[in-house]
Amino acid sequence: MKQLLYLSLAQQICKQIHSGVFTAGQRLPSVRVLAQQMNMSISTVLRAYQLVEDKGLIEARHKSGYYVSSDLITLQMQLEEQKPISPEWVTGSTLIVDLMANATKENFLQFSTAQPAEDIAANKEIKQNMLRILRDNHLILSINSELIGSLKLRQQLAYRLTRLGILASIENILITTGCQSAMMLCLKTFTRPGDVVAIATPAYYRILQLMEVLQLKVVEIPTHSFSGIDIPLLQKTLSEWSVKAVIVSPTVGNPLGESMSKESKQQLLTLIEEKNIPLIEDDAFADLSFEQPRPEPVKALDKKGMVWYCGTVSKTISPQLKVGWMVMGKHADRVIYQHSLMGITPPYLNQLTVAEYLSQDKYQKHIQHAILIYQQRYFQAVSLVKKHFPKNIKVSSPTGGFVLWIELPKHINATEIYFKAKQQGILITPGELFSVQTSQYKHCFRINFAQPWTEDRIKAMNWLGQYIERLDNQTIS
Ligand SMILES: Cc1ncc(COP(=O)(O)O)c(C=O)c1O
Q1: Hey, which residues does 228 pair with through a beta bridge?
Q2: CB distance 248 to ligand 1 below 6 Å
């Protein structure tokens, strides 16, 4: 618990710096004063300051205290210059196939797919639950679940969602094959080929693939790394184009890890209501928010059924179970009809296994432990970036989850780094996949920091840093 205290204080300090309460070069309250104010011990405050220092946000000055780093800008994402683009078709990238084909190979050091940590996975409990269900119900493998999913699972979810402020009836929850298929169902229901969908950019590339499959056009709305989707630009876009749906991850996005404030979530909802456009809320990473209790989803504010809330256990319990869900908005019957046409549901055994796990209330303990580990691994990741990478790069400051977005000087091609790193047995995710305009993030890449920082992973970061430095010097000279 003590450990959690210093981590949460460190997080609060980071938040204050990012939101401009403390600016570059400014002195922070002394350790003693902060300890008194927060009613914490000096060692807790000191540990929190040291963590924030490791992130590069503050620096200790001899006999003078802690100051906000004067080169803070290097750690902030500057996406403000971006403009929304007009709707574009998604033209598929064979790079995704290459990445996915290699993502499961054991001979690669895996920094690419957004897979949770293997060393803290709840595999043992999940296996025990599965075996118990199989033993107690020998017909389970011959039974299909209800059309909208296992009642037991929907009951458990309804209970859990209440704690997030979502008052969903069990008839309004639809069990899906992961979050991806929940979003697919929404898009299939609300759009026709050629329609335009607005999405926060950079966007998780598999959502862009959904648009490709459904032959939709995408209009990308810039996302700010600390405040989320640019609402004035979204407003402008919704006035200019006939947009049929908006997709956003308002809490712990992927790849930036950003979260919107409650006020911004309310503004987003108000806009959506004014324009009468469905909002597809992708909440895949939100339970792993470093801020606990985790922030409320937009769906918790939704009184008119405008939000289609999509969740999953892929980032928290296991990606293999393929269990996701949707809290439906208005005209739910249309989505259920679409669901009946597509006939894709996760295996009943998996649904019951998740229901059992949630009912034992082990989930919350597992999440708390995972968050603690991910925060530590995040700080280690940033220290490694600071140690090995050139100084002129920018790194995201995720509010949760386990992915880090790295922006290089514009002249460096991260796709080239992807291929070169692959030869070294290192797999990263090139930035060009996260946009329909492949050139937009060509100088960026994403890494997963969920796994423990073993010696070979540390060496991989060293190699990446040196290679980037070489590319940087080559282009300059
Ligand atoms: C932001 C985001 N949304 C949705 C998904 C898909 O989740 P699922 O595996 O439940 O389909 C992912 C998976 O990586 C993701 O990162």
Answers
A1: 224
A2: no
